[in-house]
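Much of our argument rests on the idea that a fold can be written as discrete symbols. In the encoding step, the backbone of a single protein was reduced to a row of integers, each denoting a local shape. This step matters because it turns folding into a mapping between discrete strings. For completeness, the protein is quoted in full, as a sequence line and a line of structure tokens:
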Amino acid sequence: MKFLIRFLIKVATVIVLSYMLPSFGMEVTVASPVDAVKVALVLSVLNAFVKPVLQFLALPISCLTLGLFSLVISAAMVLLTDYLLVGFHVDGWLVALVFSLAFSVISSIVEKFIVDDKQ
């Protein structure tokens, strides 16, 4: 049940960011709510399986940059999601970086308040 709630939070976060970021001049397009579900699913799978491999391979670079290279890897996951899905578009690296940071922060904060891990 917690998995479903967390997934729905991620879907809602994608929808909110697709409406919020264009008002700041950053082009993020999600064509439909079904595409938002696809984005949340693909991004979750990529972050679970591909991102740890890339972080391990980029460990020397991450050490040299004091961990800031992990932001580049997160943006790359968003751009890879953009490449894999038709109904999702992110306009460039900077927008992907802002999207990944906002996605992580918003979904983490909402999950902390909604999902109770003490049970």
Notes: The CA atoms of residues 12 and 65 lie 33 Å apart.
